[in-house]
């Protein structure tokens, strides 16, 4: 229509243009709606799975490692609740009044034991070149979602803050995952290894049954979490490194535990592969999960928008320009270094003595002023 | 980047704690507590007209907790029903109304004393009337038991009916009156210690000064710049993940926080305080009973969606709640707790320059002391608490001044409040690092905490023991360590020309012996 035209020709073109425009507007709207629906549905697709992962439900999980064996006791074994009561280490009753069920106060030596566990764990993991962090415990709900959790689902584990788009974190994996959101890191900076200490909050909605007594399932707890961002081809190796760090920690404390390669039915959507450690808890009379190490490959990084620019040797073209490689998505991994309440259950139940005292594992003693045991006190 | 390199080649030693002076074979940790308030700048809907709303810029941690009325439901006839009731001594208020009125004026409170007295009188009168009518109704009922003429019986039945209706109306009025009286009376702030200066912020009295501002022969940096250069915090990433006034601590700052908490707990435990960690989610009624207003305008309190729960702004709240609705034995007093918790504050309404970096944040770690004691001992424990605080800050080598806060600056629960302000060279002024309040029986009347005085039992002829009437405990609270403010102090005061920061000697054993934080080449 830019050239010189007869009026009737021009009129025809104008008509044609109008029709095209209308058709285009409709289609473009359809495209937007379709893209949105596609995105929502596609985001429900879980991560792919490592070929070695057993297929099936809980019972199909494969034993990967066993360390130690259940301690035998020649006296009646108490559970951690009873031990804690007799040694005045926690108060669940006052907390039930002040806050509700599954809340607690730690008292006396239990406070020092929590601090010692956190301090020792951070120190040990820092030796492996992890950067220590403390994190915000209130985060935007979008960050929670990008990590693969559902803040507003039915039976959600996530506490939300009134009149805001913020939530409480259930694990430091979330605020740490968010550190490099929407950015491109240099390949030379990888791997980025963080060990983060935070409080964690979980609604435990829908959790029922006997596995909820005492410290085993609570709404608030302290946790030290490891988080790695790495190159795609290295995530399997770092998954092995993480589970090794965990096993070394638990072995140092003298715990008996087994490491499981979790079956497909037990993997969360983000996890490509997940190793759980279950420790023997004599008071409960069974194994209880004390940690979890997941390789999330690029599931979280595609949502959080974290990429790296591979640093290939720059090839200069004739014009002297350097070719930059296309950014790739990092792989992310996370692993529990220390979940304090579960560790307290393990320590109290495994190292109880007949006289009612509890022996403190040697590695923790320097972090507690050298105390060797928690003794019953006469009132 | 390996953390070992960052620590000048020193491997990270096991972080030894200073020996706690309790050997395993000796008596258990007996820790008794004293309180020290870390007040929250809370403003109710009834912001006092005379008080400048944000005079707390400098002392961000002070609570101007205007008396909290309990959350109430509006019923059909517009009388508000309180969800819980403080044990107010109305008779005492009436008998001391001049002193109460003066106190209200001095504190710029908008509690309505005249209304309270009026409602109280009305209530007493209606109560008398109700009792009189009940008496008459009983008479009628008694008369109806005997033998009567039908006409007489009929008259009595009528009379009984009238009395019953009148009584029902009056009893309803009485309930509504009691509720209104309760709500209004709960707004009346605590009385004030006679030595407290009267007036606003500027009237606060200097109680103690320790040290003097360090002089630097190089340009002084503020904590934000120091933190940036030493890679100790990240506010930018936190702004994306969570919002402004959130932060990550990194590297040595993490170990410094842990050392501060650990050392503080250890020192305070030596004074017989029982260490605790506490829930950080609590029922909103507990928050109110401690004197805060979770649902006021510009509230400092975060609420949890779809629940009656809130996040704590200070461990004072969950610790205060431990002995809620109970009577403790006199022999168990004083109960002394030192509690470590994370604290969450909305800082709504806080504006201005006093909000940079770590000075005002939404989430932080704090070690709080709390004491429940006999009434006649609270002044003594207030002195003990401020002494503990001053010893802690002196040990770290800080320069600070202790102030006896004036009436205009006291929160509703506080009978008397001492604030400590430390010199922050990077900010170029003093900043509040702690607060110690004596709340006498204000909180205990709301939380329902009493003790039974153990007088020598006198046995009557029948061999019964006379038990004394329970009295309300006095509660006190005091900040032993508010970590971000301490980080500001340590970084700004102990910065060196080469960009490093010296770690105070008492903290070193709790950080693997590290003597300083050094700049690292990248």
UniProtKB/TrEMBL annotation, chain B:
The record marks 479 as: Important for serine binding. Residues 94-180 form a coiled coil. Pfam families: Seryl_tRNA_N (PF02403), tRNA-synt_2b (PF00587). It is an enzyme of class 6 (ligase). InterPro entries: aa-tRNA-synt_IIb, aa-tRNA-synth_II, aa-tRNA-synth_II/BPL/LPL, Ser-tRNA-ligase_type_1, Ser-tRNA-synth_1_N, SerRS_1_N_sf, SerRS_core, tRNA-bd_arm. L-serine binds at residues 314, 345, 368, 477. ATP binds at residues 345-347, 361-364, 432-435. Residues 222-504 form the Aminoacyl-transfer RNA synthetases class-II family profile domain. GO terms for molecular function: ATP binding; serine-tRNA ligase activity. One of its GO terms (biological process) is seryl-tRNA aminoacylation. Its EC number is 6.1.1.11. PROSITE patterns: AA_TRNA_LIGASE_II. NCBIfam families: serS. This is serine--tRNA ligase. It comes from Hibiscus syriacus.
């Amino acid at each position: 229509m830019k050239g010189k035209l007869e009026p009737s020709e021009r009129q025809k073109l104008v008509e044609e243009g109008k029709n095209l425009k209308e058709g285009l507007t409709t289609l473009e709207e359809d495209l937007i709606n379709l893209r949105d629906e596609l995105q929502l549905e596609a985001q429900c697709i879980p991560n792919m799975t490592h070929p070695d992962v057993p297929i099936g439900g809980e019972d199909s999980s494969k034993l990967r490692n066993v360390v130690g064996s259940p301690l035998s006791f020649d006296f009646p074994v108490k559970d951690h609740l009873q031990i804690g009561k007799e040694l005045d280490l926690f108060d669940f009753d006052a907390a039930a009044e002040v806050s509700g069920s599954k809340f607690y106060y730690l008292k006396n030596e239990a406070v020092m034991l929590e601090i010692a566990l956190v301090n020792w764990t951070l120190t040990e993991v820092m030796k492996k070149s992890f950067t220590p962090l403390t994190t915000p415990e209130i985060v935007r709900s979008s960050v929670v979602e990008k990590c693969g959790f559902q803040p507003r689902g039915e039976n959600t584990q996530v506490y939300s803050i009134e009149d805001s788009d913020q939530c409480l974190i259930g694990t430091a994996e979330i605020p740490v995952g968010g550190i490099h959101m929407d950015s491109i890191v240099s390949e030379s900076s990888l791997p980025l290894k963080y060990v983060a200490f935070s409080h964690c909050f979980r609604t435990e909605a829908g959790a029922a049954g006997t596995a909820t007594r005492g410290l085993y399932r609570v709404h608030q707890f302290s946790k030290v979490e490891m988080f790695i961002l790495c190159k795609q081809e290295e995530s399997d190796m770092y998954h092995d490194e993480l589970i090794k760090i965990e096993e070394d920690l638990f072995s140092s404390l003298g715990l008996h535990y087994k490491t499981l390669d979790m079956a497909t039915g037990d993997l969360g959507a983000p996890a490509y592969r997940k190793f759980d450690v279950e420790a023997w808890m004599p008071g409960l009379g069974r194994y209880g999960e004390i940690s979890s190490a997941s390789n999330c490959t690029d599931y979280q990084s595609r949502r959080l928008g974290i990429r790296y620019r591979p640093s290939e040797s720059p090839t200069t073209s004739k014009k002297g320009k350097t070719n930059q490689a296309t950014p790739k998505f990092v792989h992310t991994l996370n692993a529990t270094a220390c979940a304090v309440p579960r560790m307290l259950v393990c320590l109290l139940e495994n190292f109880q003595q007949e006289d009612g005292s509890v022996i403190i594992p040697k590695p923790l003693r320097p972090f507690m002023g050298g105390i060797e045991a928690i003794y019953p006190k006469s009132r | 980047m390996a953390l070992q390199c960052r620590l000048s080649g020193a491997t990270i030693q096991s972080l030894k704690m200073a020996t706690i002076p309790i050997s395993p074979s000796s008596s258990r940790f007996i820790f008794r507590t004293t309180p020290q308030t870390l007040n929250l700048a809370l403003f109710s809907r009834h912001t006092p007209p005379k008080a400048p709303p944000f005079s707390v810029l400098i002392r961000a941690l002070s609570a101007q907790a205007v008396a909290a009325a309990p959350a109430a439901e509006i019923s059909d006839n517009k009388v508000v029903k309180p969800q819980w009731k403080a044990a107010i001594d109305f008779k005492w208020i009436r008998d001391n109304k001049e002193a109460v009125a003066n106190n209200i004026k001095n504190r710029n409170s908008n509690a309505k004393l005249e209304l309270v007295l009026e409602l109280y009188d009305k209530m007493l009168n209606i109560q008398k009337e109700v009792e009189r009518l009940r008496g008459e109704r009983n008479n009628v009922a008694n008369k109806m038991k005997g033998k009567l003429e039908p006409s007489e019986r009929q008259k009595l039945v009528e009379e009984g009916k009238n009395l019953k209706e009148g009584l029902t109306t009056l009893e309803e009025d009485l309930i509504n009156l009691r509720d209104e009286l309760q709500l209004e009376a709960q707004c009346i702030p605590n009385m004030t210690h006679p030595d407290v200066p009267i007036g606003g912020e500027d009237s606060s009295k200097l109680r103690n000064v320790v040290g003097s501002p360090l002089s630097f022969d190089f340009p002084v940096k503020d904590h934000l710049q120091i933190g940036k250069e030493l890679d100790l915090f990240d506010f930018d990433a936190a702004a994306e993940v969570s919002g402004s006034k959130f932060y990550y601590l990194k590297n040595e700052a993490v170990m410094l926080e842990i050392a501060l908490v650990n050392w503080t707990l250890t020192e305070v435990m030596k004074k017989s305080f029982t260490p605790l960690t506490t829930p950080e989610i609590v029922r909103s009624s507990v928050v109110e009973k401690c004197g805060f207003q979770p649902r006021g305008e510009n509230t400092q309190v975060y609420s949890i969606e779809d629940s009656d729960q809130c996040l704590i702004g200070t461990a004072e709240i969950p610790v205060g709640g431990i002995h809620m609705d109970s009577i403790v034995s006199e022999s168990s007093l004083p109960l002394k707790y030192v509690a470590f918790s994370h604290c969450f504050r909305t800082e709504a309404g806080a504006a201005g320059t006093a909000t940079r970096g770590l000075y005002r944040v939404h989430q932080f770690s704090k070690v709080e002391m709390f004491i429940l004691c006999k009434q006649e001992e609270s002044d003594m424990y207030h002195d003990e608490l401020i002494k503990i605080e001053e010893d802690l800050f002196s040990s770290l080598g800080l320069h600070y001044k202790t102030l006896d806060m004036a009436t205009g600056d006291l929160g509703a629960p506080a009978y008397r409040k001492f604030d400590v302000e430390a010199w922050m060279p990077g900010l170029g002024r003093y900043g509040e690092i702690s607060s110690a309040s004596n709340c006498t029986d204000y909180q205990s009347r709301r939380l329902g905490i009493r003790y039974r005085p153990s007088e020598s039992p006198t046995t009557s002829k029948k061999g019964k023991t006379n038990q004394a009437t329970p009295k309300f405990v006095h509660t006190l609270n005091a900040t032993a360590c508010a970590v971000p403010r301490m980080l500001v102090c340590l970084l700004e005061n102990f910065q060196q020309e080469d960009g490093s920061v010296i770690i105070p000697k008492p903290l070193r054993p709790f950080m693997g012996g590290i003597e300083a934080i050094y700049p690292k080449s990248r």
